[in-house]
Amino acid sequence: MLKLFKHFKSREWCMIAACLILVVAQVWLDLRLPDYMTDITRLVQTEGSEMAQVLRAGGKMLLCALGSLGTAVLTGFLASRIAAALSMRLRSQLYHRVQSFSMEEIHGFSTASLITRSTNDITQIQMLVAMGLQLIVKAPIMAVMAIGKIQSKGCFEWSMLTTGAVVFLVAAIGCVMAYVLPKFKQIQKLTDNINRIARENLSGLRVVRAYNAEGFQEAKFAEANDALTTTQLKAQRTMVTLFPTMNLVMNGISLGVYWIGAYLIDAAALTEKLTLFSNMVVFTSYAMQVIMSFVMLCMIFVMVPRAAVSAKRINEVLDTQPKIIDGSFRGETELQGQVEFRHVSFRYPDAEEDVLHDISFTAKKGETVAFIGATGSGKSTVANLIPRFYDATEGQVLVDGVDVREYDQKALHNKLGYVSQKAVLFAGTVASNVALGDNGKGPATEEDIQKAIEIAQAGEFVNALPEKTGSHVAQGGVNFSGGQKQRLSIARAVCRKPEIYIFDDSFSALDYKTDRQLRAVLKQETAGVTSILIAQRIGTILNADQIIVLEDGQVVGHGTHQELIRSCPVYREIAESQLSKEELGA
Amino acid sequence: MSMHPNRNKNADRASLRSGGMRSLLRFTRPYYAPVLIATLCAAISSVLSILGPDRLSDLTNCITEGILTGIDMDRVLTICLTLVAFYGSSFLLGLVQGQVNTRVNMSLSKNLRAAISEKINRLPIDYYNKTTFGDILSRITNDVDTISETVQRSVTNLVSAVTLLLGCLFMMFKTNWTMAVTAIVASLLGFLLMSVLMGRSQKYFRARQEWLGKINGHIEEAYTGQHIIKLYNGEAEASAQFEELNRKLYESNWKSQFLSGLMQPIMGFVGNLGYVSVCVVGAALVMNRQITFGVIVAFMVYVRLFTNPLSQIAQSMTSLQQTAAASGRVFEFLEAKELEDESHKTKRLETTKGRVEFDHVKFGYTPDKIIIHDFTETVEPGRKVAIVGPTGAGKTTLVNLLMRFYELDGGEIRIDGIPTTELTRENIHDLFGMVLQDTWLFEGTIRENVVYGKEGISDQRLKEVCKAVGMHHFIKTLPKGYDTVIDDKTNLSEGQKQLLTIARAMIENAPMLILDEATSSVDTRTEVLIQKAMDELTRGRTSFVIAHRLSTIKNADLILVLKDGDVVESGTHQELLAQNGFYAELYNSQFQNG
Questions:
Q1: pTM value?
Q2: pLDDT per residue over A523-557, tens digit each?
Q3: In 10 A of CB A395, how many CB atoms?
Q4: Which of A63, A277, A584, B294 could form a disulfide with B61 if both were Cys (CB 3.0 to 4.6 A apart)?
Q5: Centroid of chain to Cα B565
Q6: What average pLDDT does the segment B372-401 reach?
Q7: What is the residue range of A258's domain?
Q8: Using the beta-carbon criterion (under 8 Å), do B593 and A373 form an inter-chain contact?
Q9: Are residues A367 and A259 in the same domain?
Q10: Average pLDDT, whole number, for chain A?
Q11: CATH assignment of B3-334, given 3.10.50.40, 1.20.1560.10, 3.10.50.30, 3.90.1150.10?
Q12: Which residues 479-508 on chain A approach chain B with CB closer than 8 angstroms?
């Protein structure tokens, strides 16, 4: 957990220092209070004391208390700012680290877990820091100072009693912690689970309902919920025994001191009796302070285990270095719009077989290179290697003659317009979705957006919306149909004005007519842009300059439509499954 | 006594602002009995701790009286033993109370989470167009956690504090009037300060939970679409949004924390003030020989006991504020308008001939934008009906209406002559197997994903179905076969995911079938295979197929061509080609040079 504290900045360290000084001041003032109490007690008890003396002592005590209040307020102010600032910074760093991850790391953690780590876990840390700044320091200082005071007042028996009580308390807390700590670890994991299942239900809403599987989902949630509750219950029930125990110890101390005191006073010499009595009253209040400080430590310990687990989870993310490391090449190339694969092979980590094996091809400026093949043949992987979602296991992927690994990722991304198989839209407006991001050429203008929407054949439905490009888009674009979402995500790629388009099966949600029109307009309006096209439909790729047929990750055909129809049996089969003989001949 | 109405007023104000507290109270009704036990325990244990100082003051008196003449040790022993009994039972009661409370509290948060999870499935789909998943998830974790953490602290604390307070007042007045009034006046001062602060901090608590929900929503979205944001160099933009939310959260975070942290030091000060006042007044009284020194000692303890519950009440109120803010959010979700309750519907179609009639169906997702204007069509049993048309023509909307994911704005849909509004949604869903464009798989084994909640499916049947969709071989190559867990780490292609969802529909084996772009990500050769299996499956069953790939639907009995929510052409493939209209144009566009 200490590792997290290195995220404090010097300004916060100053604030923390101020906080500590204030806490020390507060403890000092707090411990002055019993002195004044003794004074007052003595004055009240002594015959013939003046009322003015009592008032003076009372006034001093009140000043002292006021000072203590002031320091406490200031400490609270600083501590809550420090804690909130730390949580803000951690959240922000976590967020940026996740943004830098490649797919491999994201999938390694799972999205749901990353979300809990960025929210729930950070809240835990924040709570601990806010409380801790006030208590972790205060408690030991208070204990030490109070023990110092006790020494002059106490006698052996009383000190033994107090020591015994403290030892007992520490032992009790230790036992409870040893039992509870591992439970808290589980709780955090189980919370992840709860989150994942609820999220799953939310994302599959229509399927869940269509299958009347609400009960099934709820049962699954109930199971996770049960597991969480049982573990929480075990941990909490152990924790709550601490409070009555502390109470008992506190009460026991005052009783014990008085009880022993009665015997001591009874046995003492007449002259010492009165001193012993007032010492007893004072000792009790200091002993309380000592115990109180241990109680405060207890409260911290309630939070530490959970926070420690959270800290570990946060650090796990912060310590994960993205596998994809930025190159330094800024992207100034003479070549434009060229994509080349040189003997590229790829396999997923821990997998036994290559997904892609020894792929080579070159797409020149303005060319369209299409990939077709069965489901699972590795088509999408080709599209994933160009923007470096993954790095090739063997061989080289070159864009404009430069290995993609040498590029500064931003520069590489500026050359690409990628459209995924599954359209991804963000909550916002149509315009904010189309103009997403930065292409290194300045922000998109209203005309750019409008034009991209027209090219992507989305103009018709966008213009029919009440607020046109300003219309609301719900998270995940759920208020648009599949084809509409896909066209908006294509518009997004167009709006970028890239050198190279990568369409990862982006047309399958479109009807033939829209598909054809879109490609026609695209070719016309953005001539000179290279296209890497992954597709299922023969119709979509019919006119590509090169068609590469993949099967089980290997190239089994490479040529134009006419060539492949003659020479490649796999291609012919695919074609025949979609078009009749006559149509093929046409 | 004077504290009491004040406190109520405050609590009322808090609940008026959020409305969450009242709902929470209603939700906790089943726990009234155990809460009562816990409360009793707390109350008795508080009474014991008030009687304690009384004895302690006896003890002090006993000692001071005997300081010169010799202490009555027998009496000391009796008093001490009584105190031991007091503290011992107080400890036991505390234990019981803690256990009962924890149980109630854990069970409460469990039920809240379960209620949210069930609620998710009872809300109209429409609801989710207006909210983010992250925000709902935040209610399940952050808000329920807050409720559980704060309720635990506040409720029993409040009870024992109030008991302690009342008991203290009683004992103080019993002991000495003047001293009692002194102590109360001093404490009242603190209470006033406190209520001012309470009013202030409430709004920050609410704000904090809200920003927490918002930032959760943003994070969820940004993490899910991370690859797109990254590829479009949109990090800066997304970050700017995030930083803004984060900053707002920071503001409300520290303010709420600061204000709530003020309560305790203030109460501490009030305690000291009370102490001084009691001593000063007490001193005066002792000097006038109106009271004994023992009374002052007792009052010193009373003041501590008296301000303790005050600061506990303060703390509880802070906690309750958080509870109110969090439960406001939880119950806002739980009390959102649900789908119509259908338990009164008795009509039930066990099986169906599969005659589906659309009768002047009218629908729009928002009232100002009608998508389906006036759709009328009768589908005879056993027909394979294809719905084609440009994107946005309303194809998926028709499916949504058929499944009653949304309610009609006009007209009727009838199955075997019965209007769908007279059937339960559950019944309708039973009649249809459905495969959607968006593949949805959950973290679980392949078997669980395919069988999906259906009982009594043999391994044999599972294998047959997976063979039919061509996934059997692939599944066999996985390390654990059908028991392989599908999660983020499993690299299934979109097409493979679609095949699994098709297998799921085949297992469900419903009388009618809806395929909404079910094979769009599957290669066409595989599709031919699936088609065969499907034809086998749909023989004699009414099926609705939406597809862009016209090869998929060539053999449909009836093709409906939809445009802007209306049927513009209908007939078989051949008939429509012969008409040379919109369909022919659509169809031929796949061969034209693009």
A1: 0.71
A2: 887 788 888 888 877 878 888 888 888 888 888 88
A3: 18
A4: B294
A5: 37
A6: 82
A7: 2-194+232-319
A8: no
A9: no
A10: 82
A11: 1.20.1560.10
A12: 479, 481-484, 486-487, 489, 492, 496, 505, 508
